[in-house]
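Sequence, please.
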C-alpha cells in the first residue's frame, strides 16, 4: 500500500494537463489530451483502456520518450517536487533509470543479446554511479537477483537462455539496483503464458512491498490489474475518464465506458444462455476526435451537451474521479476547459 503522511497518501509524481501530439501528414493526432493524476509513493496504479487509447503513449510521455513526429505538447510532470519537463538532456538521462525505470512487453528489445545478465546490471550501476568498483557492483547484482527469485548462477547467462518471466525480472532488477522510485510496466506480462503471468504479477506486489517502489501498471487486461493494483485509472481516446480506489471503481463504476469495460469481463457466475456484453461502436479516429466528450458516439447515456462541451475530471466521493456530464452541472462549470473540445 502507499505510504502516508499526516493520514494522507504521499505523492511521488504529479501529472498535470499532460498532452502528447503526433504531427502526421493527415494532421495533428491528439494521442493524450490534458491528462492529470497523481502517483502515490509505494502504490500500484493500474492504467487500463482499449488498444490505441493512449495509455502506453502516456507512460512514455512521463519519461519524455516520445519520438518525432510526436512531442509532449503541453503540461507538467512534477516528480518528487521537480518538473522534469524543464530538465536538460543530461538530467533526463539520469532521471531515466535512476529515478524511473520502464519495462516493456518484450524484454528482448531492451536487453542486449550479446551481453550476459551480470554485464547488464554492472553497466547500469557504472553508468549512473561511475565511481563504483566492479567487484562491488557484481556483489550488488548477486544480492538483487536472489531477492528477485533468480539463482545467482544465472548472472552468467545471456538473455536468450532465460525464460520470459526471468527476463522481465532482470528488467525490473535493472531499475531496482539503482533504487528507482517508480517502475512503469507497459504490458510487461502480455507475452507470458498465464501461469508465468500470474507469478510475475504476484512478484510485482512482493517487489512493491519489499522495496517500497511505486508501480504504474499499464495493461489492457482489467481482470489482471484487479489482482494487484491499489487504484485504477481508465483511459479512453487519449483522456482519463475515471480514477479511484480499485475496489471502489469495481464495485461502483461511474463512467459509462468503465461500466461497459467491466461488463465485458467473463465470470464463472454468468448464465450460459446470457451473451457477454459487447461495447457498441469503435474507438474514434484521433485525427478527428468527436467534439465534447469523446465517448459520446458510443455512450448509452449521451445528452445534447455531451457532443458540445468537454467535461472535467471531478471528484465524486473520496478520491474517486470521473470525467462525465452525468455528474456535473454545465451551468455551474467555469469557462475555460469546458469550452474546449
Ligand atoms: Fe456519456 Fe455524456 Fe458522460 Fe460522455 S459525458 S460518458 S457521452 S454521459
Amino acid at each position: 500500500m502507499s505510504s502516508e503522511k499526516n493520514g494522507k497518501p504521499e505523492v511521488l509524481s504529479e501529472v498535470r494537463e499532460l498532452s502528447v501530439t503526433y504531427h502526421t501528414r493527415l494532421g495533428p493526432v491528439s494521442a493524450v489530451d490534458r491528462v492529470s493524476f497523481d502517483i502515490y509513493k509505494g502504490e500500484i496504479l493500474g492504467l487500463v483502456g482499449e488498444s490505441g487509447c493512449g495509455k502506453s503513449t502516456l507512460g512514455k510521455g512521463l519519461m519524455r520518450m516520445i519520438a518525432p513526429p510526436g512531442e509532449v505538447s503541453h503540461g507538467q510532470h512534477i516528480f518528487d517536487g521537480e518538473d522534469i519537463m524543464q530538465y536538460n538532456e543530461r538530467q533526463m538521462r539520469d532521471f531515466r533509470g535512476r529515478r524511473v525505470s520502464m519495462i516493456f512487453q518484450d524484454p528482448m528489445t531492451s536487453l542486449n543479446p550479446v551481453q550476459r545478465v551480470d554485464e547488464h546490471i554492472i553497466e547500469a550501476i557504472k553508468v549512473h554511479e561511475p565511481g563504483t568498483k566492479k567487484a562491488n557492483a557484481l556483489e550488488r547484482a548477486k544480492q538483487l537477483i536472489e531477492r528477485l527469485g533468480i539463482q545467482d548462477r544465472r548472472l552468467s547467462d545471456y538473455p536468450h537462455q532465460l525464460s520470459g518471466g526471468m527476463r522481465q525480472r532482470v528488467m525490473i532488477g535493472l531499475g531496482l539496483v539503482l533504487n528507482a522510485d517508480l517502475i512503469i510496466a507497459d504490458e510487461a506480462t502480455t507475452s507470458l503464458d498465464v501461469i508465468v503471468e500470474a507469478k510475475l504479477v504476484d512478484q510485482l506486489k512482493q517487489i512493491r512491498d519489499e522495496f517500497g517502489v511505486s508501480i504504474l501498471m499499464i495493461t489492457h487486461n482489467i481482470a489482471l490489474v484487479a489482482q494487484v493494483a491499489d487504484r485504477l485509472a481508465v483511459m479512453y481516446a487519449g483522456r482519463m475518464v475515471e480514477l479511484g480506489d480499485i475496489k471502489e471503481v469495481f464495485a461502483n463504476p461511474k463512467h459509462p465506458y468503465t461500466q461497459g469495460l467491466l461488463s465485458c469481463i467473463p465470470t464463472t457466475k454468468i448464465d450460459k444462455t446470457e451473451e457477454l456484453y459487447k461495447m457498441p461502436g469503435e474507438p474514434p479516429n484521433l485525427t478527428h476526435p468527436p467534439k465534447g466528450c469523446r465517448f459520446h458516439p458510443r455512450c448509452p447515456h449521451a445528452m445534447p451537451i455531451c457532443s458540445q462541451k468537454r467535461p472535467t475530471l471531478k471528484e465524486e466521493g473520496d478520491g474517486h474521479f470521473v470525467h462525465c456530464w452525468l455528474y456535473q452541472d454545465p451551468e455551474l462549470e467555469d469557462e475555460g476547459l469546458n469550452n474546449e473540445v
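Residues 113-178 form one domain.
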